[in-house]
Amino acid sequence: MAENDPTPEQEAAARAKEAEEQAALPYKWTQTIGELEVLITGIPGNFKGRDLVVDIKRQKLVAGIKGKDPIINGDLPHPVHTEDSTWTLTSAPDGTKTVEIHLDKINKVEWWAHVLTTDPKIDVTKIKPEDSKLSDLDGETRGMVEKMMFDQRQKEMGKPTSDEQKKADILEKFKAQHPEMDFSNAKIS
């Protein structure tokens, strides 16, 4: 454990504070590496889609009940594909309705720390890849995401990234093939 690493108690307190901040938001949200789901629960059961305002812009989101202050109104931290972002109104078991907003991220290899830039952030380094459906990604994207996650873990442990390891391996191989050469002052970058 590095010197600056939080203790398990500090870690638990940070998680609890984060959970509390997220619970206080007027909506719930989840994400995969490629998309975000935002849920506004407790909409009166007699409401229809026309009673709501949901405006999804490239980097702004407004959602709420017509004629009232929006429940969500602010800038997104990263851009979304507006043409692939949608919303629906669904009935909940308790007789209320839920607005489900689906945001399609433009950058498919980036975790969001929050939905709106004014909202409290979550610690994206704590996201486990299993939380996202890594298997849903196409081969190339999945490989890129797995490499990024591997490199991130290596960096955190002070170990070489996959690229640095590859360079070192190539140099070792070359050294083995050329024992007559002196590499004592060699620097790889």
From TrEMBL:
Keyword annotations of the record: Cytoplasm
Please tell me whether the keyword Zinc is annotated for this protein.
no
| Pfam families on file | CS (PF04969)
Q: Which Gene Ontology terms describe the biological processes this protein takes part in?
A: protein folding
Question: For this UniProt entry, what is the primary localization, expressed as one broad class?
Answer: cytoplasm
Q: Domain (CS): give its ranges.
A: 22-116
Q: Where does it sit, as one GO cellular component term?
A: cytoplasm
Q: What does this protein do?
A: Required for nuclear movement. May interact between microtubules and nuclei and/or may be involved in the generation of force used to move nuclei during interphase.
- The name under which this protein is listed is Nuclear movement protein nudC
Q: Which organism is it from?
A: Neoarthrinium moseri
